[in-house]
Amino acid sequence: MTEAAETIFLVDDDDAVLRAVGRLLRSAGCTVRSYPSAEEFIAAHHDGAMGCLVADISMPGRTGLELQEWLSHNQSALPIIFLTGCGDVPTSVRAMKGGAVDFLTKPVEEMELLEAVDAALQRGRRQRIAQADRDGARALLNTLTAREREVFDHLLTGRLNKQIAAALGTVEKTIKVHRARVLRKLGVSSIAELVHLAGRAK
Amino acid sequence: MTEAAETIFLVDDDDAVLRAVGRLLRSAGCTVRSYPSAEEFIAAHHDGAMGCLVADISMPGRTGLELQEWLSHNQSALPIIFLTGCGDVPTSVRAMKGGAVDFLTKPVEEMELLEAVDAALQRGRRQRIAQADRDGARALLNTLTAREREVFDHLLTGRLNKQIAAALGTVEKTIKVHRARVLRKLGVSSIAELVHLAGRAK
DNA sequence: CCGCGCATTGGCCCAAAGTCCAATATCGGA
DNA sequence: TCCGATATTGGACTTTGGGCCAATGCGCGG
Lengths: 202, 202
Prior knowledge:
Two copies of one chain form a homodimer. Chain A has helices at residues 15-27, 38-44, 64-73, 89-97, 110-141, 146-156, 161-168, 172-186, 191-201, and strands at residues 7-11, 31-35, 51-55, 80-84, 102-105. By secondary structure, the first copy, chain A, is α/β, with parallel strands linked by helices. Chain B binds a DNA duplex through residues 145-148, 160-162, 170-174, 176-180, 183.
């Protein structure tokens, strides 16, 4: 059961908005969770969350922009849509600079919100795929011992075994063994594939 | 004489704004060119332009957003800062979604504008460096003949000479020759470097 | 103290790649 | 029609890389 469905996290201090937007999104087939404040959302938030966040800007306690900052500080890649009644230009610009998917003003047309949510979910999926790819590659690299990692780095730059040996103060034979182990551990059979793998780990 | 300095391109239908902003930027050491309309800027614009664009939003003829679209359609990577007196939230969001560096409202604090211009120039420099790197790599790849390019693609995936030969319907010896030529033409001495080069060309 | 993981090194053999040599064939132009 | 670029192939030789078996030394935790 790895399939935790995508969730739309709603954060707004106005209960009427939470209910209205929640109903709209649910009727569109979304799974929705509502929070009356940024703090309550943060308390319930876990890193692996999938979906997107629809948040108000001005709220008692932490504001929408502060919530956005908190998420980025906490490596959370949850895409954010701001939905506010009292938005001004500088705020919207800050939000967009901070990576928000969209910045909508109430009252919002249903279609507009649904499209924004769709775009946010798409972005989230792409991010997760890219992240999983990176993580997978990094996990593989982490199986290398310190010495193997050194050899790996030299292999990336296309050095010959004898050159690596000279650089590491050993003999070619030793590097040959390390090289074979590195290729085996990383599940590749050529230097080309090894370089590609390193690129995926970024 | 390759050193065409960075220029700030000012586009605003209000002559007073052109003069005031122009004076501010010039006093900060910038080279400035002013245009009273998007059309006049477009007429004078050439692809290799370096610097950034500071544009108004609402103007007779082409608007700021339409100018932004025109630039992106024309592959121009000139970073854009919008500076407008009558900006609303939806417009600013569209501008930022379209890749604008910033969206400022008049009257603007001098420091704010200067910082935005600085950020835009920085972004432009990064883009040019990245672009030059890509173009260089692509130019190298374009020196390959069709056949060499086929061999190149197989080398990227880590295939052996005999495997490439089978795929291309020739013998290993022939591939060996092509392989040597490819490495020589591209100025690399290992498959690892070749893969890196291909990555730069993207 | 012993086992285990890790780094190190040796020998042997074979496969693959790099480097010279040279030769033929085709195709599009000058 | 002859030239130049390209593709093709062969031979011979050297250098590198990969696989297999074996062995030593070191440090760490049971």
